[in-house]
Amino acid sequence: MRKATAAAGSAVFLVIAPGVVAGLIPWWLTGWRIGAAYPVPVRVTGAVLTAAGAAVLLGAFAQFAVQGRGTPAPPAPTEQLVVRGLYRYVRNPMYLAVLAVITGQAILLGRPVLLGYAAVVAAAFVAFVYGYEQPTLARRYGAQYQAYRQDVPGWWPRLRPARTARPR
Question: If the chain, 168 residues long, is cut into consecutive pieces of 10 residues, what is the mean pLDDT of each piece?
Fold first, then answer.
């Protein structure tokens, strides 16, 4: 897949999947109205968490297009296993980024309903990763994915990047 095609496909998938999960549904649940009156430092923390999650998400999507020459969407997967950048620290930075955006919104807006929603989304992500994604990546990338999976944790980021998380 050409990088331009991968970038376009990734952009469409970004709007469809994370855009709905971390944008549209939280808006439906809250209308972006502020709930509980939290102190300013707490709200700032929520804003920073939301912005950081969004930045990680955008960077990971770009990495799939540039390095992997594909998209995060199952119908248009990457040609190469993506193991650079944040993927040297944790195997699932996109899912963690989406959860950070939702949690950040909950803190920023003072809307606990979003914390419950984040828990439901987290459970769905875990089920998807273990039920579909890991078996699919193991079939597609074989020993390279198995080595990567042994070197890089799935959900709790490493403090130091994995050295073996490089294309073989």
Answer: 77 90 97 89 96 96 84 84 93 97 97 98 98 95 95 94 63
Euclidean distance between the first and the last CA atom of the chain, given in angstroms as a whole number: 20
Check residue 110 and give left, alpha or beta (phi > 0: left; psi -120 to 50: alpha). Answer: left
Concatenated DSSP letters of 40-81 = HHHHHHHHHHHHHHHHHHHHHHHHHHHTSSS-SSTTS--SS-
Give pTM, 2 decimals: 0.92
Two structure tokens written together for 83? 């193991």
Cβ atoms within 10 A of the Cβ of 136, count? 13
| Residue in this structure with the two tokens 């070197």, named with its chain if needed | 151
Residue type, 37: A
Rg of the chain over Cα atoms, rounded to whole angstroms, equals 17
To which residue do tokens 């095609």 refer?
Answer: 5
**Contacting residues for 120 by C-beta, under 8 A, at least 6 apart:** none
Distance between CA atoms of residues 60 and 91, nearest Å: 11
